[in-house]
Design a protein that fits this description.
Blueprint lengths: L1 E8 L16 H13 L11 E2 L8 E10 L10 H11 L3 E8 L12 E9 L14 E2 L6 H9 L3 E4 L13 E11 L5 E7 L6 H13 L5 H10 L14 E7 L6 H9 L7
Helix pairs in contact: 1-2, 3-4
């Protein structure tokens, strides 16, 4: 039986999602707890999770999704209440929101139609807040909020985002950026909402870094457009720190479209002219 897990975590003390020998990771903690519930013998590998958004070290999540396959006879051992209760003792910085059966065609990674992130930052003009410091990046200069909003709009749509990420071997950086907007939040901080059909590695933090460079006067909007269209990595802006980023939501199509969506996602995207 395939099960879908909805979970969130404070990523501060994790070396990212993916399991790594000798390091504390979200995947490692959840899989260890699953092995306890399933009474998996020590000599066997724990059950393996497939994740919707593989977050880096320090990145947080409210809307992470994963799936795993278990024998049907054992599936009732894994409930949100039991798994969350176990993790409260072993990894209290992880919260299991739901565990439920999923269609066989459900794939947490390849079945997604979009992913939505939030990035929070404070400019030099905003007072520092120790209670939000783990989730908000500090920018040591004043920022032009309107200029940041205008710059974000220049990055929307179908683009080759090579300037902002490093594509995997044999893949392209062609993505559709569906949303990139800003709002003011408590304490004078700024929050960006970034949504796309998919993201490359560090793409969200690089996009925010480019817009912050415009807001801080390091580059202007025409220069941003030029860098975007050049499609090569640059040192004109910095990739923002991980701790300001949170995965907020992963969206999936109706059940009858899951298989076709996964097939399209696995296909290589055509380069743009």
């Amino acid at each position: 039986m395939r099960l879908r897990l909805d979970l969130g975590y404070d990523g501060t003390d994790f070396h990212g999602w993916a399991a790594q020998p000798g390091l504390r990771t979200v995947q490692g903690e959840v899989e260890t707890a699953l092995a306890v519930l399933l009474r998996t013998p020590e000599e066997q590998d724990p059950p393996r999770l497939t994740v919707g958004g593989r977050t880096d070290a320090g990145v947080h999540a409210r809307g992470q999704v994963a799936h795993l396959d278990v024998p049907e006879a054992l599936a009732d051992r894994i409930t949100a209440c039991r798994l969350d209760g176990l993790l409260r003792r072993t990894a209290p910085d992880i919260v299991i929101a739901a565990v439920r059966p999923a269609p066989p065609a459900f794939d947490a990674r390849f079945g997604a139609v979009s992913r939505r992130y939030e990035y929070r930052l404070r400019s030099a003009d905003a007072p520092r807040d120790p209670l939000t410091a783990r989730f908000t990046a500090d920018v040591p200069r004043s920022l032009d909020f309107d200029a940041m909003r205008q710059a974000s709009a220049e990055l929307l749509g179908l683009q080759d985002f090579t300037t902002f990420c490093k594509a995997r071997a044999g893949a392209t950086a062609v993505r559709t950026l569906l949303r990139f907007d800003w709002r003011e939040v408590e304490g004078g901080a700024y929050a960006a909402t970034i949504e796309a059909d998919a993201f490359c590695h560090s793409m969200v933090r690089a996009l925010v870094g480019a817009v912050v460079a415009v807001g801080g006067g390091r580059i202007d909007r025409p220069q941003l457009i030029e860098l975007r269209d050049r499609r090569e990595r640059t040192s004109r802006f910095a990739v923002m720190p991980a701790h300001g980023l949170s995965l907020e939501e992963i969206a999936y199509p109706p059940d009858d479209e899951l298989a076709s969506r996964a097939e399209r996602t696995r296909a290589r995207r055509s380069p743009l002219d």
